[in-house]
Amino acid sequence: MSKNLNAIQIADKVYWVGAIDWGVRNIHGYTTDRGTTYNAYLVMDDKITLFDTVKKEFEDEFLSRIASIVNPEKIDYIISNHSEPDHSEVLPEIIKAVKPEKVFASVMGKKALNAIYHDLNMEITAVKDGEELGLGSKTVKFMETRMLHWPDSMFSYLVEDKVLLTQDAFGMHLASSERFGEELPWGVLKTHVSGYYANIITPYSSHVAKLFEKIDTSGLEVSIVAPDHGPVWRNMDNFRKVLSLYKKWSARKLDEKIVIVYDTMWGSTEKMANHIEDGARSSDVSVEMMPLYSFERSMIALEMLDASAVIVGAPTLNNNIFPSLADVLTYIKGLKFKTPYGAVFGSYGWSGEGNNLLREYLVSIGVEIVDEIKSKYVPDDKVKEECFLLGQAVANKVKEFIKNQ
């Protein structure tokens, strides 16, 4: 085991002992263009306590960081805030090596860990919402946060230090040498926390809203927020910005913005997209053009997070929807955005089923179709004018929506 990797202190007797994954570029369908971290935390108290673990291939790095401050065999307790494998995959090996007194998880976490790993060789102790655990000079208070973003999800609060360990909530996929949010530019933080919410948390927005109610009524005072991915939030000014974004997204507050998602075979659909964009911009709304030969599904999700309309276009291929659109729309449907308006467009040669299939997708996710346009082969001046007017019509719907939001 390497001895040259160090733990990083984040609070009194509280250390980051996680791993940095510089190379990962995809996590369950979500593109991670700048890698990620798998954060784990160690509390050096009378009962030395480890919060979460890491992916299997980072076991040596993880143990090396722990060993920089204590022999891993001296760990007394392990607490699993989240059972997803990127935070629990080395748990069976750690249990065998460390032989801790107890391993704690939420009620649902106990069920999940036993279903994922069949060789833990240790009884998991289930803790309930509001339950407390004494470590010596420090106290851990548990808070169930089911469906943020798994049924087992749980926060752990270090009462005396006001440190909130939030598993996947308030995190981001971003590999960096900096461990604290204030060490990174706000623009970088905002981009990655937005992408994380859009691609992972969006379907559970109603649970986020309930979490805020729970925290507000609990009276918790927080000085440090330590998620399981990305930097630790030690600067509360930055974290308040994150909270503001979470509150906006969970409340489904949208911007005066249209996303145009399309692909093209011989350029005809792209010509239509350009005229739709021109029409929308003439009405002074923000427009994001996202051709699928350059943008992938995670980037589409990021832009749809606060969009009030999505306009989707594709040629018909083999009497069917164009494959890249089928991929993106299936992904978007699962994220359950609340986009109020949309439109469809596309070119075709002899059948033209593509538009109908695009419309069916949008309707199935609750989008009101403003209009649709087909072009047989290459769009002529009449079709181009129709596209311009479609862009204007959608933009007007968006402006009216934002005015009344």
Q: Find the CATH superfamily of the largest domain.
A: Ribonuclease Z/Hydroxyacylglutathione hydrolase-like
How many individual helices?
Answer: 12
| CATH fold-level name of the largest domain | Metallo-beta-lactamase, Chain A
Strand content: 15-25%
Helix content: 25-40%
Biggest sheet, in brief?
7 strands, mixed
Shape: elongated
- CATH architecture of the largest domain, by name, is 4-Layer Sandwich
What's the Cα radius of gyration? Answer: 24 Å
Secondary-structure-based class equals: alpha/beta
What does this entry show, briefly?
GO terms for molecular function: electron transfer activity; FMN binding; metal ion binding; oxidoreductase activity. This protein is of the alpha/beta class.
Question: Would you mind describing this structure in some detail?
Answer:
This protein has 405 residues and is of the alpha/beta class. It has helices spanning 59-67, 85-88, 91-98, 107-116, 186-201, 205-218, 236-250, 268-281, 297-304, 323-335, 354-364, 381-404; strands spanning 8-11, 14-16, 19-21, 26-27, 30-31, 36-38, 41-43, 49-51, 77-80, 102-106, 124-127, 132-134, 139-144, 154-158, 163-165, 224-226, 257-262, 286-291, 309-313, 341-348, 368-376. The chain folds into two domains: 8-250, Metallo-beta-lactamase, Chain A; 258-400, Flavodoxin domain (Rossmann fold, 3-Layer(aba) Sandwich), CATH 3.40.50.360. Strands 1-2-7-8-9-10-11 form a seven-stranded mixed sheet, with helices on one face. The protein has a five-stranded mixed sheet with strand order 12-13-14-15-16, with no helix packed on it. The longest helix is centred in the last third of the chain and has 24 residues, at 381-404. Residues 258-395 form the Flavodoxin-like domain.
